[in-house]
Amino acid sequence: MPIAMSSSKLSIAIVAILISSGAAIAQTAPDTENGRYALSPAGDGFLRLDTRTGAVSTCTNSSAGWACYMVPDERAALDAEIGRLQADNDKLKGELAARAPPAKTDEALPKSDSLKKAEPKVAEGERKIEIPRIEIPLPSDRDMDRMMSFLERAWRRLIEMANRVQKDVSGGKI
Predict the structure, then answer these.
(1) Which of 17, 28, 39, 131 is 20 to 30 Å from 96 by CA-CA measure?
(2) pLDDT band at 24 (very low <50, low <70, confident <90, very high)
């Protein structure tokens, strides 16, 4: 003979079955909160990815139940550093723009092969290297003579000093 149950007893039985199966499921994996979290097995627990925020946690099962702990996020530190560097870059660009005279925009840039090296131009009567927007003055013959004279005197003094040291070390015998 079939067992007749009242609808309230049937509801209680279904709820009890669902609760007991839910407890069993809860002990096999942490809660995913309706798909918010994506779980991946890792070691003796799970890695839990929060699909809304991108936060990652490690979840392990202990005698007290599942516990999830946030994994340190290096992305926040990297984002902060990127923001700091961008602010520094903007500041430096502003300072550079304030220092540099405004570039002439009326003149067209000369057409040249970007891979070809610029030939230095030497003006008559004045020695200098001209690179577009950069001018490097070269020393005159007089400056070169003064430099050579200085180097000769320095070399002679160095040799004299070495000879004196050698005499001192050898006791005056050379």
Answers:
(1) 131
(2) very low
